[in-house]
């Protein structure tokens, strides 16, 4: 299956037992097996989001949108009243705290509950359609910007470093940062991609490398700790990453390890690009300090494949994300274009500040 067909999140009107289900590519099983999980209950969906069966800010947003429909179907089967339905939808909204897309998408779909399931599904479908279109637009804008701004691109294809997985698996399809890379590859302008393995759950080594391999895009998987050295040795022309939340001042939360890449890019004088749809831009959050960073279980860093690797006495510190100051982001690409972020400015042209300032 190529990336054009890859859909991490789809709605199935009648899965096993005739129940409606959310069909998710099980990202915990990749790259070894490509299998789907049919989720039919709110508990099942929350478990899938927490275990990263479905992951990546726009993909969990899409899952949240359809999650409202899933909750309605369960309410119908189990005779929930409206208060119970609202409480279950709120649980979906809070399943992971950092990516704002989950909250934005649930909040967008929820007001349609009163109009019935078809209206709710139409809204969730629209989220998916718009995300796909946004990714295509970002890909083109990001590629154009890099080919114009990176001097090396005038002479040879580019060497791009990326972190985590921002591809079709993390979105409604195509991808954000990986969408820019795909677009560059389609134009014949990729020499190689350095895919950071992305500890501790290996979204880079397992998922990004799998997506790149599917399309024959040349790449290396490297340890996260190799990234700064690869950049400072001059082996990278630009870094492109996605985002889980971009605050009003341009501070960007993304997979843990991102800020170190941004610092290395600044030191080396190469672009650090963030590609994210406007659904990831949260003007109600003034700065990175106000972004809730998910702390995940200690076992993810103390064990390897279920076997304890750290001494029994060690504690694990496992923040899933970090915040890159907006001043380190050379360019923010959204579906509206590319914004070169200057510290203190609103990052997206045309979006207004809800505080009215
Ligand atoms: O914990 P994950 O795998 O959900 O983290 C995902 C990331 O940090 C991605 O870089 C981000 O969501 C952008 S996805 C287009």
TrEMBL record:
Catalyzes the interconversion of methylthioribose-1-phosphate (MTR-1-P) into methylthioribulose-1-phosphate (MTRu-1-P). It comes from the Bacteria. Belongs to the EIF-2B alpha/beta/delta subunits family. MtnA subfamily. HAMAP family: Salvage_MtnA. It comes from Streptomyces kanamyceticus. It is an enzyme of class 5 (isomerase). Pathway: Amino-acid biosynthesis; L-methionine biosynthesis via salvage pathway; L-methionine from S-methyl-5-thio-alpha-D-ribose 1-phosphate: step 1/6. This is Methylthioribose-1-phosphate isomerase. InterPro entries: IF-2B-related (IPR000649), IF-M1Pi (IPR005251), IF_2B-like_C (IPR042529), Initiation_fac_2B_a/b/d (IPR011559), M1Pi_N (IPR027363), NagB/RpiA_transferase-like (IPR037171). The keyword DNA-binding does not apply. Substrate binds at residues 55-57, 96, 203, 254-255. GO terms for biological process: L-methionine salvage from methylthioadenosine. The active site is at 244 (proton donor). GO terms for molecular function: S-methyl-5-thioribose-1-phosphate isomerase activity. The record marks 164 as: Transition state stabilizer. Residues 344-357 are annotated as: Disordered. It catalyses: 5-(methylsulfanyl)-alpha-D-ribose 1-phosphate = 5-(methylsulfanyl)-D-ribulose 1-phosphate.
